[in-house]
Write a structure and sequence with these properties.
This protein is of the alpha/beta class. The protein is 39% helix and 18% strand. It has 7 helices and 10 strands. It starts with a strand and ends in a 7-residue tail after the last strand. The mean pLDDT is 92.
């Protein structure tokens, strides 16, 4: 199976857990690994050194929101998304279009200011882009944008609809929904040869689908970089 492997919510407070997951994936031969970085947290020089060490070991970087937190719910659609999926993480959904664009530009500028490689990929928190059309995304300084259904390639103006497996399940209800969702998406990837997005969050090995996550790592696959989507 082809895999697009990513570790989400890379922040100063999760960096030690991210490092442990990264090492586990490397030991299993699941590389390359894309790290989804949240810039608007309290990054110190020591934290940035830790992030650069992951780069030295082969990680690739992607932008991932700004603080990964919201201060308010914006309308009924956001309220429903928050209750079912994103909790307090759907950062784009709490903003106007202008606010989302400003956030994304701030995200990109942080990598330059921190002397880090420019990310090709941007992933909104909870994969929820909000009201930003693709015509506008094409003018922003990222090449690729991942949302719930797949990845938009602004270089070729093409949307890749891709299966996804996730493991962030802190309740029995979420586990009961996500487990069959993952099974269906893995079946889709196997039957079609389409890359499966394999997204891991820092706490997933302590949550209800930890055994499923480890089983997927043990099975392995052929890992691709997001940049290789053609």
């Amino acid at each position: 199976m082809k895999l697009l492997v990513s570790i989400h919510d890379v922040m100063p407070e999760t960096l030690d857990r991210v490092r442990r997951i990264f090492d586990r994936l490397v030991d299993a031969g699941l590389v390359p690994i894309t790290l989804l970085v949240v810039p608007g947290r309290d990054w110190t020089a020591d934290h940035l050194r830790g992030l650069r060490a992951l780069l030295d070991d082969g990680a690739e970087l992607a932008g991932h929101g700004w603080t990964h937190e919201i201060r308010r719910i914006r309308g009924p659609k956001h309220a429903l998304h928050s209750a079912l999926i994103s909790r307090r993480a759907g950062e784009h959904l709490a903003l106007s279009r202008f606010g989302i664009l400003r956030l994304m530009l701030s995200n990109r500028a942080w990598f330059d200011a921190s002397d880090l490689p420019a990310p090709a990929l941007y992933v909104p928190p909870a994969w929820a882009m909000g009201p930003v059309p693709r015509s506008v995304l094409k003018r922003l300084p990222f090449d690729l944008y991942e949302t719930t259904g797949g990845v938009f390639d602004a270089r070729s103006d093409r949307y890749h609809r891709l299966p996804m497996a996730g493991f962030e399940t802190d309740t029995a209800f979420r586990a009961a929904v996500v487990r069959p969702f993952n099974a269906l998406n893995r079946a889709w990837a196997r039957s079609s040869g389409t890359p499966l997005r394999f997204g891991i969050h820092p706490d997933d090995f302590e949550l209800r689908l930890a055994d499923d996550l480890q089983a997927m790592i043990d099975v392995g696959g052929q890992c691709l970089s997001y940049r290789e989507l053609g």
